[in-house]
Amino acid sequence: MQAFTVEQVRRLERAAMGPQDDGTLMQRAAAGLAAVLADELRTRAGHVYGTHVLVLVGPGNNGGDALWAAARLARRGVRVDAVGVLGTPHAEGLAALRAAGGRVVGTEALAALDAYDLAVDGVLGIGGRPGLPDDVADLVGRLADACVPVVAVDLPSGVAADTGAVPGAAVSAAVTVTFGVAKPCHLLEPARARTGRLVLVDIGLDTSAEEPELDAWDAARVADAWPWPARSSDKYAKGVVGVDCGSETYPGAGIMATYGAVHGGAGMVRFVGPESARATITANLPDVVFAPGRVQAHLLGSGWGERADGDRAVADAVASEVPGVLDADGIGHRPDRLPDSWLLTPHAGELARLLGIERSEVEDDPLAAVRAGAGRTGATVLLKGATQLVARPGVRTVEVAVPGPSWTGRAGSGDTLGGLCAAVLASGRPAHEAAVLGASLQAQTAAAHPGPLPPHVLAERCADRLGAWWQERHP
Ligand SMILES: NC(=O)C1=CN([C@@H]2O[C@H](COP(=O)(O)OP(=O)(O)OC[C@H]3O[C@@H](n4cnc5c(N)ncnc54)[C@H](O)[C@@H]3O)[C@@H](O)[C@H]2O)[C@@H](O)CC1
Ligand SMILES: [K+]
C-alpha cells in the first residue's frame, strides 16, 4: 500500500476535480463512507434500519463528507444525531442531513452516549492541525468510556497526517475510511494504532504522476520477494555472511547475530567475532565456520561496545567492495560516506546520534530522520522501532516493513535482525530489499508465534516461517 502527503493529496484532488469543485469528489467520498457505515451497523447491531448514529462534525470538508454520508444513512432509516463541535459545519451537508430527517443537536441535547450504535468522526481531515480542543477531546473521551465504536472519516482527528505523530488528544477509531489514497498517518505509529481497520474508498484519483511518500509491504509481497534458492543454488548462490559482532563484554550479540544469519537462509556463515562467543556458537550452530575467507555480505557492529580498531574493521569491510550491514556500535565507526549497498540499522537513539539531534526529534518525525540518515551517510538506512522504515539516498519513497507485535522489541532483537538482513544481502539483493525482507520476516514470525520469545529462539522460528512460505510456493 502506498501513502501520499497532504500536499500530494491536494494536488491529486485538484487534478481530478478540474478547475471547478462541483462536489463530485465529496459525493464519491460520502457514498463510499455511507456504505462502510452501513456494513459496520449490520455487523455490530445486526441491521441498519433503526440504529442510532452520532456524527461529530468539524468546520471543513471532512465534516462535509460525514454529513453527506449521514444523510444517506438517514434515508435508510438510521436515527442520526449530528453535533457541530468546531466552527461552522459544511452548509450543504447540513441541509442534506436535515432534509433526510437527521437531527442537528448541541452537545447538551445528546442522548446518553451508550445509546449510540456508532459514532462518526468528521471533526478534522487532512486540513487538521494535530491535537483537539479540550471540549472535543472530552466528548471523544466520553464516547470511548461508553464503548461506542468510532468510524473516522479520512483519518482519526487529532493525529498529524504527514508524520503519524500524536502530540495531543486524538480519536481512536475502530475503522478509518480514507479517500483515494492512504496518508502517512495510516501507516506510521503512533497514529497507526488509532486508525483501526483501514478502508480505502476509490474517488478516482490518478496517482501515476506522483512518487509515493511511503510504500508499505504486506506479508504476501514479502513471501513473493524472498530470495528463494533455485534447485541448482549452492552455498555461494545463497550467499556467505561474514559476522564480526559481539565483544568480550557482549558475546551474546555475536551469537544472536549469527543465529539471524543462519536462520535467514545464508548459504554459509563465517564468524570472525570474539573468542568468548565461539564455544556457544559451535555447540548450537555447528555449521558456522571460524576461518576467515570469502564472504558476500558483512555484518558488523552489534555488541561491539568500545572497540579500539572499529574504524579499521569497518573501513576494511567497505574496501572489500562487498555489501554489508552496520549495526549498533559499529555505526559510530562508519567512514564519511558509504555506498548505498551498505545498510545501517540504527534504532531511534542511534539515528539521533548519527544526525546530531535529540532522540525525541527522531521519534516525532521518523520519516524525515530516516531520510536524513540516508542522505547524510550515502547508505541505505533501516530505522528500527514500532514502525520500521527503510530509506535510500536520492529516493523519495520510504519503504515500510510489515509490522509485528511489540514483543519483538527487546535486547538482542536488533542483533538477530541484522543477521536476517545480512543473509538476504548475501544472496545478492539490494540493501533496501534486504532491510524490508529481514525486518518483515522477523515481525511476521513474531506475529505467528506470539509471546516473549528470546531473539535467538525467534530467529529459529524465522526459519520455520520461511519453510511454511516455501511449502506454500513449492507444493
Ligand atoms: N478536497 C477534496 O476534493 C476532497 C476532500 N475531502 C475531505 O475533505 C477533507 C479536507 O477538508 P478541509 O481542507 O476542509 O480540512 P478539514 O476538514 O480537515 O478542516 C480544516 C478546518 O479545521 C480547522 N482546524 C484545523 N485543525 C484544527 C484544530 N486542531 N482545532 C480547531 N480547528 C482546526 C482549520 O482552521 C480549517 O478551518 C479531507 O480530509 C476529506 O475528508 C473529500 O471530500 C474528498 C474530496
Ligand atoms: K476525521
Q: Secondary-structure blueprint of this entry?
A:
Blueprint: E1 2-3, H1 6-17, H2 24-45, E2 52-57, H3 61-75, E3 79-84, H4 91-99, E4 103-105, E5 118-122, H5 134-145, E6 150-153, E7 175-179, H6 191-195, E8 197-201, E9 214-216, H7 219-225, H8 235-238, E10 240-244, H9 251-263, E11 268-271, H10 275-284, E12 297-300, H11 310-319, E13 324-327, E14 342-345, H12 348-355, H13 359-364, H14 366-377, E15 380-383, E16 389-391, E17 398-400, H15 413-426, H16 431-448, H17 455-473
Parallel strand pairs: 2-3, 2-5, 3-4, 5-6, 6-7, 7-8, 9-17, 10-11, 10-12, 12-13, 13-14, 14-15
Antiparallel strand pairs: 1-9, 15-16, 16-17
The structure holds ligand NAX and potassium ion (K).
Residues 62, 121-125, 152-155, 157 line the site of potassium ion (K).
